[in-house]
Design brief:
Elements (H helix, E strand, L loop, with lengths): L31 E6 L6 E6 L19 E6 L4 E6 L3 E7 L7 E8 L3 E9 L2 H24 L3 H22 L1 E8 L3 E5 L7 H11 L9
Helix pairs in contact: 1-2
The structure holds zinc ion (ZN).
Zinc ion (ZN) binds next to loops.
């Protein structure tokens, strides 16, 4: 039935990763509904076989009434987006100035999905910003409020902001989905905005014809 390597005449891009590997270190792996721990790198991930690999997976018919789910993430100079549309899932880069015009876009149609892998990693950049910038400000205003009580009003939101940033960096983390298609492989970071994280993940699986699964 399902083997760790692409079988059944599935054409996989020679440039992308193998469809059934750990998305962290590319060690060979078998698809499973459950969260896996990589034997080589020890990282947690999920790996699902898609309709282009397993003929028993039925992709639901495209429904234009189901809302489009869009996520985006900012790098140092570029902004990336991921989008779930009626016909497929796509990722691309936004213009760096106003971050609203798609400069390029490449996608995988739902029926062409060979595998979907999901994993998370701590957001070290956000953690460093929280500890080096937000925390000292919060602490500074808190200490200052002993002398000048009005400063306490400022220290509360700053403390909450620091706690929220640390929560996001360490607990929510950066969430990634690697979608290996027949013709190309795309990777989407889907934890921003945070309110769409679970929706993006569950819609990604549902529209690929897969049962819902935990985010590892
Ligand atoms: Zn690994």
């Amino acid at each position: 039935m399902m083997t760790p390597t692409g079988s059944g005449g599935v054409v996989v891009s020679a440039f992308g990763p193998s469809p059934f590997t750990c998305p962290r270190c590319d060690a060979p792996s078998a698809p499973s509904r459950d969260v896996q721990t990589c034997a080589r790198c020890g990282g947690a991930f999920t790996l699902h076989a898609g309709a282009a690999h397993d003929a028993s997976i039925v992709v639901p018919p495209p429904n234009a009434l189901v809302p489009i789910v869009k996520v985006r993430s900012a790098g140092l100079a570029t902004h990336h987006f991921g989008v779930i549309e009626p016909l497929g899932v796509a990722e691309g880069e936004l213009d760096p100035i106003i971050a609203s015009v798609a400069m390029d876009k490449s996608g995988v149609a739902w029926g062409d999905v060979v595998s979907i892998a999901v994993w998370r990693k701590p957001d070290w950049v956000e953690l460093v910003v929280a500890i080096l910038l937000a925390a000292p400000f919060a602490l500074g205003f808190l200490v200052g409020s002993f002398a000048l009580p009005v400063l306490f009003v400022v220290s509360v939101p700053l403390t909450l902001l620091t706690a929220w940033m640390i929560h996001r960096a360490v607990k929510v983390q950066r969430n990634y989905a690697r979608i290996v298609g027949r013709y190309r492989t795309i990777t989407i970071r889907f934890d921003r905005p945070g309110r769409r994280r679970r929706l993006f993940h569950s819609e990604l699986l549902r529209r690929a014809g897969l049962p819902d699964a935990p985010i590892p």
